[in-house]
Amino acid sequence: MALDRPGTAPRNDLSAFWMPFTANRQFKQAPRMFVSADGMYYKTSEGREVLDGTAGLWCCNAGHNRPRIVEAIRQQAGELDYAPAFQMGHPKAFELASRLRDMAPEPFEHVFFTNSGSESVETALKIALAYHRARGDAGRTRLIGRERGYHGVNFGGISVGGIVNNRKAFGTLLTGVDHLPHTHLPEDHAFTRGQPDAGAYLADDLERIVALHGAETIAAVIVEPMAGSTGVLMPPKGYLEKLREITTKHGILLIFDEVITGFGRLGSSFAAAHFNVMPDLITCAKGLTNGVVPMGAVLATAQIHDAFMTGPEHMIELFHGYTYSGNPLASAAGIATLDTYAEEGLFERAAELAPYWEEGLHSLRDCPHVIDIRNMGLIGAVELEPIAGAPTKRAFQAFLDGYEKGILVRTTGDIIAMSPPLIIEKSHIDQLFGTLREVLCALD
């Protein structure tokens, strides 16, 4: 292997970084580089401002370059850079866990820290399996996900997930997994504002799966309360309530993946509180630290946690964890982020702005190629008619054109998804949708 000579400048021709979820060859021919960010805007390497219509990757809920968060990380790095989480601790991890417990819906009493949404999902699935075993019900090993579900990219997450391209290249995945149907009914749900009326019956398919495999074999059902990465799919009215009713009836744990919906995105701390449906475990990440330092968490009820707290006190109760669980810098960032949310009333702000956001989004209904619009809280999606023989191309072109015109949106398939920082102003909403209108009207 050839080595650079001492004293020579390292090469930076973009080839070394294999980028995730990216068309690498296309990107590296015409790179889109952000070099700084502040408030609602990124700045590109050419000096242009780009309005952040996606809160980064659904994660920068408090906007960018927030002073309290920046200072908390700076101070923590100079005080305690790292502490092991196995058999040792540091105060800020416990403080953040207590803060999360206090803001979560009432049944949730305990927090297990991870480093990402993907790890939070893996952790929740393992806790569910171990919980049944701890209670003497080790036959419950089957996991139920949902079509078009996104639960991260680790093997457990893509096994219970239901996005085809995330699964098909990676072999047989986990065994003992089944899937509920997704909740999107285009013929009934097109241009719905908020939760659609039709579709609660889709939860009844869980009874079919129970009858097929036997309730005594099923450990947990995992769903996103509102599916985000697959294109913003809303739960029909009564759907989540039915899932809770059926899982409770059969002794099956219900897991809400709130990596996207957690921390104010729908105007509440968590979607569980927004919909008033309480699962047994909640996964979260992204907005926990405002995306600044990687961190995730699993919130557990006392019933789940206490099932492990048996046997000799000197023995490890759960053989699971990560080198960076409760990392000091991440914990400091998390505390500062929760302070920012509270002091600025950002969850309440999201709820107050949601109607204005909804009107702006649905004003795009008359644009060319638009076949559906969906929204809830400060989340929205515009679905485009695919180009015959070239699926995803039209939406990707909209993404590229939007970037050139100064807005950042996300695409999944032929769906444009938006989820701005909760500090967004009405003028920003006008800019985002006004520019998107220009983009859509110019598309082939």
UniProtKB/TrEMBL annotation:
Required co-factors: pyridoxal 5'-phosphate
One Gene Ontology molecular-function label: adenosylmethionine-8-amino-7-oxononanoate transaminase activity
Transmembrane segments: none
Assigned keywords, A-Z: Aminotransferase, Pyridoxal phosphate, Transferase
GO biological process, one term: biotin biosynthetic process
Family per record: Belongs to the class-III pyridoxal-phosphate-dependent aminotransferase family.
Family matches, as PANTHER family: ADENOSYLMETHIONINE-8-AMINO-7-OXONONANOATE AMINOTRANSFERASE, BETA-ALANINE--PYRUVATE AMINOTRANSFERASE
Protein name as annotated: Aspartate aminotransferase family protein
Species in which this protein is naturally found: Pacificitalea manganoxidans
Origin organism lineage: Bacteria, Pseudomonadati, Pseudomonadota, Alphaproteobacteria, Rhodobacterales
